[in-house]
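Because discrete structure vocabularies remain unfamiliar, we first show an illustrative case, written as a sequence plus integers encoding its fold.
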Amino acid sequence: MSNASLDEIQELIQKLSGELGDMSEAASRHIDDLHVAVNNVASHVLAIEAVLTQVAQKVDVDEAAAVQWIRDKTSAYAEDSSESSAAEGIVKSLLGNEE
């Protein structure tokens, strides 16, 4: 193998290394952006839960109807409709009926 071929291979490896570094930085930025977005959504959900808990203490909320509403909306995606979903547990928690 000639020196020219080795130099070309080394140049290609350095270029690839630089491009991989750029891709890694871009992926890291995207992960950071996703983390911020998830935190933002979680904060909004927590605030809504706080307000709904206060409302539920003053308004008669039919827990069974709320659970049925969740089951109706998620039945197409539920693997086992006999099991309670996380959403159903959250309804019970918001209404003060944690098991």
The two ends are 74 Å apart (CA to CA).
